[in-house]
Structure to design on (622 residues):
């Protein structure tokens, strides 16, 4: 019997790049200049900022407390041999955050423009002295919250015979997902909500340990990250207070002025989804789950060489995401739900489709050759043929990427289902297909050789065994990734036609090499000096790794399709048009006749392989 207990506490306060940031309200002129014929003592040009960026992190404190305890007990005479293991795990998280500029604010001015019924000479109540509109924006992530995840598990490695091993296990979890708003309702998953079985079998085919076949099946549940609670349960705050501009001088519009002269608002663009008065968390919400099945075999060609093959299937059963809609006054609202299930299984308005089911499936066949270390060298080679399909890439989104081609990582609150047309292309057809990281072919080679200098040129330069040099090299060859034309509608990207319509990036190949020399000294060689040389991208390849796929630089709205916005329903009617005949033909026609701008970067390389890097290292071991 073996009992193991371990615990820990981690503390982190992330305040990078937050020092020296001014603590004042910033005034920005998004559309500046003096109104025609009206002199201004302090006019502001478009793009003017009274101070630099005011967004900062006053604190972002995360603490984690963990406790793991398990008991292992081995039995030899209970219908075979057993290795029982029982365990308990405790994971407590806490976050105290104050980032952004909530309570300080940013005043944005739009001279000669209108919005929310406020504009030159007009206010919601009728004619007024106004040269445009402005709003005060309060934005930040503020609050404290904590959560607890508790797990129990039992497993048994059972050998009923010397040639057969069965691995049987069951894991139970309970978890509470915190709320950053004081009155918000937390999500709680009980013991019955996360029941995860584990089944495995391995069989020694010939009874001599040379060949085995194996298979396994398991269900896996995810723990909540804090991105969703912070963003949707009251941590993120984004309020806008709209007011008129009766004075052409920008210095008039302080935070105090905006609050005392608000005509529309505050409009909340981060309405907590767990507000008890309007709770939009699916009461039947189910924990995210993935099912995995693997079957394979291994065969020893010799004492040092093993060949193996394995088939793996991983299927997403369900996930948790924010599923969004726009209400009658323009507020962004989100259901926290399993996409395509429960409260979002029905359209939220006529003429729309319900949220689609989140889908992701990975099928792969891997072949391997492993030459274990002997006679001073070892070698590993593998080839994988795979398919990754669906409409949901996971906690990190390969459908969204920045100017450097890096995907977005916002667990449970990526853009997948934020608006009714997301999950569909611009013709209202499901956008299921090859996901952004699908690479059908993957070849990987790795090997190393150790020089001990014995019998070098017929002489022994290393009688003491103090010297050795290891030379290693690695090669990776991968298929390119799918490229899909994207268009932006009301600030959200979707696919113009189908995933992969632009083909793939070129094949990615890279060779790395390293050299490490060891010199041992001292009594019994307890001390050692190591000199390292690592070369990444040895051949200095310049493969394209991502391509710019946004076909237009503009965010398209109702006006681009001749849809009226007089009734305030232009956005909703645009969404309806996607599912009633589609917008693909109109977009393509607009690109052809110039009414919709075409981005010159479209289908051009965005990022390339990192050039050759050479790194030198020195280590002293004792």
């Amino acid at each position: 019997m073996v009992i193991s207990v371990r615990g820990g506490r981690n503390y982190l306060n992330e305040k990078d790049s937050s020092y020296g940031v001014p603590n004042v309200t910033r005034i920005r002129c998004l559309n500046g200049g003096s109104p025609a014929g009206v002199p201004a003592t302090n006019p502001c040009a478009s793009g003017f900022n009274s101070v630099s960026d005011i967004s900062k992190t006053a604190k972002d404190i995360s603490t984690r407390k963990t406790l793991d305890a398990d008991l292992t007990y081995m039995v030899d005479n209970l219908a075979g041999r057993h290795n029982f293991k029982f365990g308990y795990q405790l994971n407590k998280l806490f976050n105290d955050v104050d980032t952004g500029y909530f309570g300080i604010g940013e005043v944005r001015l739009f001279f000669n423009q209108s919005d929310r019924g406020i504009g030159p000479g007009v206010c919601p109540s009728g004619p007024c002295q106004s040269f445009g509109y402005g709003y005060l924006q309060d934005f930040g992530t503020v609050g404290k919250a904590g959560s607890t995840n508790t797990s129990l598990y039992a497993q048994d490695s059972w050998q009923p015979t010397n040639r057969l091993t069965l691995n049987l296990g069951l894991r139970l979890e309970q978890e509470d997902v915190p709320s950053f708003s004081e009155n918000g309702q937390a999500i709680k998953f009980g013991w019955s909500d996360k029941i995860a079985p584990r089944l495995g079998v391995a069989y020694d085919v010939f009874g001599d340990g040379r060949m085995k076949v194996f298979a396994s099946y398991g269900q896996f549940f995810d723990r909540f990250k804090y991105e969703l609670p912070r963003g949707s349960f009251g941590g993120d705050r984004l309020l806008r207070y709209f007011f008129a501009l009766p004075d052409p001088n920008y210095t008039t519009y302080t935070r105090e002025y905006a609050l005392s002269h608000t005509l529309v608002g505050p409009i909340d663009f981060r309405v907590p989804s767990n507000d008890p008065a309007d709770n939009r968390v699916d009461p039947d919400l189910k924990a995210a789950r993935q099912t995995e099945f693997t079957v394979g075999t291994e065969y020893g060609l010799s004492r040092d060489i093993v060949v193996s093959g394995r088939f793996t299937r991983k299927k997403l059963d369900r996930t948790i995401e924010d599923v969004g809609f726009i209400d009658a006054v323009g507020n962004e609202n989100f259901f926290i739900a399993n996409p395509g299930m429960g409260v979002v299984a029905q359209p939220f308005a006529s003429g729309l489709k319900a949220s689609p089911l989140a889908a992701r499936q990975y099928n792969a066949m891997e072949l391997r050759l492993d030459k274990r270390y002997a006679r001073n060298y070892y070698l590993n080679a593998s080839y994988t043929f795979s398919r990754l399909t669906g409409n949901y890439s996971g906690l990190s989104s390969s459908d969204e990427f920045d100017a450097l081609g890096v995907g977005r990582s916002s667990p449970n609150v990526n853009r997948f289902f934020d608006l009714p047309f997301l999950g569909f292309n611009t013709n209202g057809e499901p956008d299921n297909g090859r996901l952004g990281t699908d690479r059908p072919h993957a070849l990987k080679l790795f090997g190393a050789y150790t020089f001990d200098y014995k019998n070098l040129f017929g002489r022994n330069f290393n009688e003491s065994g103090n010297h050795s040099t290891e030379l290693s090299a690695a090669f990776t060859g991968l298929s390119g990734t799918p490229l899909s034309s994207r268009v932006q509608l009301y600030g959200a990207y979707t696919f113009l036609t189908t995933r992969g319509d632009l083909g793939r990036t070129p094949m990615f190949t890279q060779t790395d090499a390293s050299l490490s020399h060891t010199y041992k000294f001292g009594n019994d060689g307890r001390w050692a000096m190591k000199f390292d040389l690592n070369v990444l991208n040895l051949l200095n390849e310049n493969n394209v790794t991502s391509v710019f796929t946004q076909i237009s630089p503009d965010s398209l709205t109702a006006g681009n399709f001749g849809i009226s916005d007089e009734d305030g329903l232009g956005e909703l009617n645009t969404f309806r048009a996607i599912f009633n005949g589609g917008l693909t033909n109109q977009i393509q026609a607009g690109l052809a006749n110039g009414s919709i701008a075409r981005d010159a970067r479209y289908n051009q390389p965005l990022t390339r392989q990192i050039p050759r890097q050479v790194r030198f290292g020195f280590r002293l071991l004792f």
Residues 39 and 597 are 35 Å apart (CA to CA). The longest strand covers residues 132-161. The chain has a mean pLDDT of 90. The radius of gyration is 30 Å.
